[in-house]
Amino acid sequence: MLSRFKFFYILSGFFLLSAINPIFVSNTNAEESLKLDLNSELKKGSFLIGLKQYLGGTNDSFSQNNNITFKVNKGFLNLHSFNGIKHKSKKINIIWKDIPLKTPDTLERLVFGPFASYESAQKQANNLTTKGFEASVAYPKNWEVWIPFANNLPKDQSTYKLSKITNKSQITPFLKNEYTFQKLEGPIYISSKEDITINNINFGKRFYLAKDSYGTWTLIQQIKFDDYLQGVLPYEIGPNSPFEALKAQAVIARTWAIYNAGRFSMDKYHLCITTQCQVYKPTKIENKKVKKAIKETANLIITYKNEPINSFYHGSNGGLSATASESWRIEDFYYLKTKIDGSKLLKKSFNIPFQKDSDLNKFLDFEKKDFYGSNHSLFRWNKKVSSLKIADYLSKKKLINKNGIILDLNVIERGSSGRVTKLEIKVQNSDNIVLVKDEIRRIFNFLPSNLFTIDKLNDNLWIFRGGGFGHGVGLSQGGAIEMAELGFNYQKILNHYYPGTKIKKIEILSR
User: Fold this and answer.
1) Would 505 be classed as within a structural domain?
2) What DSSP designation does 133 have?
3) How far, CA to CA in Å, does 192 sit from each of 117, 213, 511?
């Protein structure tokens, strides 16, 4: 019997569990709808999803000629702007204008990064917070950590840079039609009883336009947990996966989203729609199998010590799962361990950790059939890469100059699963470069994973030999699919990948 619990979400990422009766209230009025309260949305069972970021800016690829069009076929759209403007029609056009400021606005901050992942950025933010700094995780283009400019600067000045931005204008939205041209202020709430198309794409029923921390705007969808999952499962594990694997994915995707719902709190929404979060796309055609998997696991999440876990998952672990600290500069979790992903007999064939190339090569050479997920296309892989190409990757990230010559590549540290955690690159007439953990795949994005060995074929050619796709932490989707095909139910699949955890049901504070 699955136990039940209720929670309050705090933006720092922790949950406090307590027995509080559900609260039922009437439908929100227009003023209440403009309150972008991340905590409140979670308690109602809703996520705020940043569908399109940086609207109105130079990198805006969604607005058409700085114009966004909302349409419905039969009913009406309702718009409510923070400055009190209300509008009702079947079509709403919003345009962006650069409006000059009477007094230029100057912002000064210290910027740490870029970081290869949110996890590494959050670790840095936590370290700064413990030292008394007001640190925030931002995502202008890459993950960064910001702290206000002040006299008490951090001691290690090599880890950050001073950013000073003077804005002489601000991107401003206007409601435009044949009858009116009105300035709007965010947040702007747009809703309908039927699905809304935005720039001819069918999205959903409830949206916000909110100003972000970079001077641009974000299109945010307000969506119920299970409706969100219907747009995640087909793109994360695939709609044709075995039913028990789909159910396992539903539980971990729900758990991951709740645990990580503070990821974009700086910009007033919970999650994005790319691989920086979970891939999400609005569902055009409802998949019955996916919907059934979500329904049969409704409100179920994975917990450890009565709190939601950080339920990492990935495409393939190559037959060997990783710990969190191997992939990111964070502390390990009890429920995420290094282990051989296969039968008990297979586990007896190897002694981990793998610290030597020879040990890892023996593992990569082993017969694949006894591993879970060996049918994944990247369970084993080889990448031949020239020294010129390696230099090109490094120069694009401004780690070496364009004429840099690669002399050698050395693995100088491996984690408990044998994954590379420190990779040294020797460059002619330059200091050696050391890439650490998630930096390795951020810089060398041709690598499917960090589980690899390196051989030098000649002065200009290297071969990377490895296994798996992704960071290797938590559930392997390839492994979950094969376990489901072998007859394991979703509970056993989840217990296999997150040992020591429990599956529990959250009770949503309904409206």
Assistant:
1) no
2) -
3) 36, 28, 18
- Are 128 and 115 in contact, with CB atoms under 8 Å apart? no
Which value, in Å, is the radius of gyration of the alpha carbons in the chain?
25
Q: C-alpha angle 308/311/314, rounded to 5°?
A: 170
CATH number assigned to the domain comprising residue 147:
3.30.70
Let me know whether 454 and 336 are in one domain: yes
Instruction: Please indicate, yes or no, whether residues 230 and 340 belong to a single structural domain of this protein.
Output: no
Residue type, 233: L
pTM for the model stands at 0.89
In this structure, the answer to whether residues 140 and 252 fall within a common structural domain is no
Q: Give domain status of residue 485, yes or no.
A: no
Name every residue whose Cβ is closer than 8 Å to that of residue 62 and which is 6 or more positions away in sequence.
52, 55, 68, 199, 219
- The Cα–Cα gap between 392 and 390 comes to 5
- Under a CB-based contact definition with an 8 Å cutoff, are residues 136 and 112 in contact? no
**Could you tell me if 87 and 66 are in contact, meaning their C-beta atoms sit under 8 angstroms apart?**
no
Three-point CA angle 94, 97, 100, nearest 5°: 150
Give the domain extent around 423: 312-473
Q: Note whether 461 and 389 are within 8 A (CB).
A: no
Residue 154 lies inside a defined structural domain of this protein = yes
- Name which of 373, 327, 328, 319 is nearest 349 in CA terms: 319
Compute the CA torsion angle 462, 322, 265, 153 (nearest 10 deg). -70
Structure tokens at 400: 């070496």
* DSSP 8-state code for residue 231: T
pLDDT on residue 509: 57
pLDDT band at 11 (very low <50, low <70, confident <90, very high): very low
CB atoms within 10 A of CB 164: 9
Within-domain flag for 392? yes
Q: Check if the beta carbon of residue 486 is closer than 8 Å to that of residue 390.
A: no
**Assigned token pair, 85:** 């403007």
Give residue-wise pLDDT tens across range 354-394. Answer: 888 999 999 999 988 889 999 999 999 999 999 999 999 99
Domain count, the chain: 3
**Residue given tokens 């087909």 in the structure block:** 234
Same domain, 212 and 243: yes
**Residues 344 and 454 grouped into a single domain:** yes
Q: What are phi and psi for residue 158, nearest 5 degrees? A: -75, -10
